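Blackboard transcription, Thursday session:
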Amino acid sequence: MDDLFTQATVYANDYVRQWREGGGRVVGYNCVFAPLELFEAAGLLPYRIRALSNAQTDLADAHLSRFNCGFCRSCLQLGLNGAYAFLDGLIEINGCDHLRGAFENWQYVKPTPFFHYLKVPHIVIDDALDYFADQLVQLKAKLEIHFAVTIADDALRAATARQARVRELLRRAYALRERERPGLTGAQTMALVLLGSTMPAEQFIALLEKELAARENESLPAPRARLLIGGAATDEVELLRELESLGALFVTDSLCYGARAFWSLTAPADGDPLRALAKLYLSNTLCPRMFEDYPSRSAFILAAAERARIDGAVFVHNKFCDVHGIENVLLRKHLEEQGIPVLLLEKEYGAHADRGRLKTRLQAFLERIGRP
Amino acid sequence: MTNLAHQGLFERVANIFSLVDNLGDTLSDAEVEGLLRVLPPESANSISALMAPHLRESSLVFLRTLSTWMREARAMKAAGGKIIMVPFNFPPELITAFDHAAPLTVEVLSTLGVVALEGQGERYWDLAMGLGLPDHACSSNTIELGSMLSGEDFRADGLISAGPGGCDANAKIHEFVSLYMDIPQFVLEKPVDRSPEAVALYRRYYRRLVRQLEEFIGEDLTEEKLRRVNERANRCTELYYELWELHKVRPCPIPNLFSLFVYATRFSMWGTDTGVACMEALVKAARARRAAGAYPAPREKARCLWAYTSIYYDFLGLFNWMENRGITHLADALDLFMPQPVDTTDRETMLDGMADRAWDMPMTRQMGGPSMSAAWIEDVLWAARELDAEAVIYCGHHACKQTWSVVSILRQELLKQAGLPLLILQTDAWNKRMTPIGVVQRQIAEFVDQVVAPQRGGEPTRRRRRRPADSSSASST
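(Written on the board underneath:)
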């Protein structure tokens, strides 16, 4: 697990380096609406951009502002300082205003060889689905031209099957985590999810199978409290580890770099594989950037809360993130109506100096819910 | 009797504005003086700005327009009709077309609260913060919506959201209020690209919204009803472009505050007789000022375009403050809604035209474009060239994260493509707590004197020459 942790918390990990050394090409994306299967079928490695608690944003701050979220500024910083020099292309998605700005500035200042803006609707109706399916057709065509590849239906189906297996195994990992005596901490689970979005699916499947088999019969000490963590784009493994050092465990989550990246993406329908992918992602992805879909998101969280038998929930958002900052207030209301205590935490992304405050807040919350 | 301290924003603003109905078409200086004495200090401040002699008559028409807007909404509610809250980036004439519904625009109400109410609506903002909403939410909508959340204001029957894709803060706060208060929300989605397919799709989304509203309001939008508002909207559009042309004259004959008058009318009474009358009054005043060669200052020092919104928390004083110093405020990006006449041939042509107008509403058009920076740059550059602007000012409203995230690109492109300097301010445009107006004024004055004037061929304002250093102060700087 230590090696896994290490690999998950570096940008160009061993898997990426090996892929590159073998002549493979890597395309970066950030948002969970990116159809991984399409890249895989093109023989590309989809790599989910992360900032891994990077707090240095001097280059990015010359372009984004202090009113933009620290996570996006950190991602831009890494794009500009060369940390992501191994990317052969970049996919922008209209996930949120800050991310769009980060990608636009990245392209404006330091263009990548390949760039495409994948436009995702904000509602799920037939017209929107048609539009998104057409967007995937356009993306496919651009990938084929730029990378001189052919994306065959068979390859798409095979990639779809591999991703389905990845998601199935990740759900098993969550089942381990959600047990009465958890087999994984919240930080370890986040590391797994992070690592999975930087390596070829086949290798990740093998790694997961081995890791899960090894952890199946291991149990962590009973935690002081069982918590759900939800909210914004949080890839701060170290932060979770520090918070869990208080004795509580995040036994489940609804994080963007967690369950929301895969949980609800169940096997797509038969038929045209590209349209099936469009339907899979647009209809099932749980994200507060979608409208007319709040009931699905709250139902998902309540189901996770029940499954993991939580004592309370912690919702975090990065300062200036409206999408989660506002939604979290609504979630608190609805969870508290169900008798689930909730702590809302606004945080500055990557601010190590702020961790003491966050731990104090969590400690006070644990006392409030009778788990001192 | 209702405790005034517990009234919501709308009731308080509507009550204050109802006073306007008792005023004549013109007011003498003595009458204005008397009015200022009886008004609460906050309203008096704004009225003082609006009653500046060169725009007094136009201001009275404008105030009556807003008073009528609120009175009609109250009457609609009293008659059992539905009040539909719309955001500023949604054309209200669709709601006006219904016989049994009236639109109220969230951001217009917030602004009226900020310029007219004791406490400038801060109590409603504070209440929203008290619910746990983040302080980086947008005051332009959270002030009015905070008032609704307080339970002391009227309760809207429905909410329209046109924010997705254009502004997260706007879209999420509307969704929040809808879900928190259990008020039905109707979402107008916008495709991001500008392809013909995307335009066609947007028209289908618009029709979906129309169908939802017809069902909700319980009324069919007939061709006759649509034609009624579109004919008036088309007349407003003609007048808009006449004003636009007059803005090109040097020195600009149009008072700075007209920029706000135009978009406030767009966001409230466009497509009504009252809206037409307001626009006609603005054009008439502008024509007269042009004929007279009128300009409020001895000379026009700088023609400025505002790249996004203006600043509203100083009781509209900044508009006149600039004008008195020869700094022309040509337009905001909120004026850049690029109206086009709607083809009134039949119901379908009108719905297509209305959808196209919705597409072009400010923020939707720019921030909801294929690229946030590209569409914004294109519009700002176009307007700057059209209006012969010499500088651009970005108000830097803290909640506009979408513009903040690409303003550095705007700055570079304005300079590169047109040699236009951009001043970037940092404020909350609707809340005085963030930046004192004196700081904003100083930054604008320095920008104009040190950057714009030299470009224009004038000399920068020289700093006071320091005395030659004597031995005792030689080391000080």
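Lecturer's comment: The first strand of chain B starts at residue 82 and ends at 86.
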